[in-house]
Amino acid sequence: ILCLVSAAAALDFKYHHTEELEQYLKGVHAAYPSLTHLHSIGRSVEGRDLWVLVLGKFPTHHKIGIPEFKYVANMHGDETVGREILLHLIDFLVNSYGRDPVITRLLNNTRIHIMPTMNPDGFEATKVPDCYYTRGRYNKNGEDLNRNFPDAFENNSASIQPETRAVMDWIKNETFVLSANLHGGALVASYTFDNGNPVTGSLKGYSRSPDDDVFIHLAKTYSSNHASMYKGTGCDNRQTFPEGITNGYSWYQLEGGMQDYNYVWGQCFEITLELSCCKYPPADQLEKFWRDNKVALIEYIKQVHLGVKGQVTDKNGNPIPSAIVEAKGRPHVCPYRTNEQGEYFLLLLPGTYVINATVPGFKSMLKTVEIPDNTGNFSALKQDFSFPEVSDQIRSRVASCPKIPLYQELTRASAAVKPTVHVLVLMTVMLVIFK
């Protein structure tokens, strides 16, 4: 144990391979057992653990009212900066708790999950660090993990990999509200959608989600707090990003991305952070990367407290799982539902909204709320809903959202409107003739 504690105390600015990374995470947990929880969510193709360190006042389990946040790095094995700065973020958080009042309040009111590497096999396969493409980008089966998730717009034919399945199960089992995945090869904060069709505005070169305003705010929060991302300078003279942000589809279209999956099926707002022009830069640059990203990493976590949260209960005060709770005017193609504790979390910018709570089979409840900016108070606005006509005996669980191209279904539905009109006209004519 003493060896583990000493390992936690000394984190150098260097690249940590699998054994060193595991040793460090175990050392942190041994040194801070009440503040951290270390667990593996699964294994890679080659059998390496996919470690997640959870930090917070209640690290081992979800606590009602406390939102869940996650950072994931190194899903492309040769994009390495995120892997290392997440280790330094862990180091900063545990050493600041109880000393820094802001970090202390952040950890007391947020459950933070950190996965330094989603693709440990790819990292170990990258024998010669390179600023550009290497085979370590992919997992051991040669699959790009950021093209491997179910897609809301197209049928993704890629075989789901062990690393992808582990993350999908992880998302399913936690109430994640906000997330970011860390990449390299550019310097920009990219937001959903990565894929699109005419329903979301792809014909205009931009794939807009119902929460586009929130995503723009999230991306700007990171870029504006980064040392240089906000300047919008690209990695070459051909490409610039105004304010250091971009809509994913506007940058380049991709199918099966993790951030779209989080948003559609996980009810979790995720953005993609490209942190370095060089994918695998020399180790002597890591300290600067940490300094450049430190403030942005913390400020982004605070955004998990945007908007409104609460519980939906029955007449006896029991939680109602799978109730639909959404802001009026921004419905999701996969409706956002309450968790097992009847909780909902909606990320919304300050303003006036009508929140619609619906228990299938019963009349909806509408409540108008004035949402302030509560990120500095580390708590979203609280708004509960109680359904007096609903009892525990008549509640039933609703099936999870299907893994089909949901926006493709919308396209077909809109295309079907015209034939339906023609059918109605034909029926009217036949009725007149019959009469």
Proper CATH architecture of the largest domain: 3-Layer(aba) Sandwich
Question: Can you write the helix and strand succession as a string?
Answer: HHEEEHHEHHEEHEHHEHEEEEEEEHH
CATH class of the largest domain: Alpha Beta
Biggest pleated-sheet summary: 8 strands, mixed
- Approximately what portion of the residues adopt beta-strand conformation? 15-25%
Mind telling me the CATH superfamily name of the largest domain? Answer: Zn peptidases
- Mean pLDDT, to the nearest integer, reads 91
Cross-sheet strand order for the largest sheet: 1-2-4-3-5-8-6-7
Proportion of residues in helical segments: 25-40%
Q: Which structural class do the helices and strands define?
A: alpha/beta
Number of structural domains: 2
Number of helices: 12
Coarse morphology: globular
Radius of gyration: 23 Å
- What is the CATH topology of the largest domain? Aminopeptidase
Low-confidence stretches: 1-8, 412-435
| Strand element count | 15
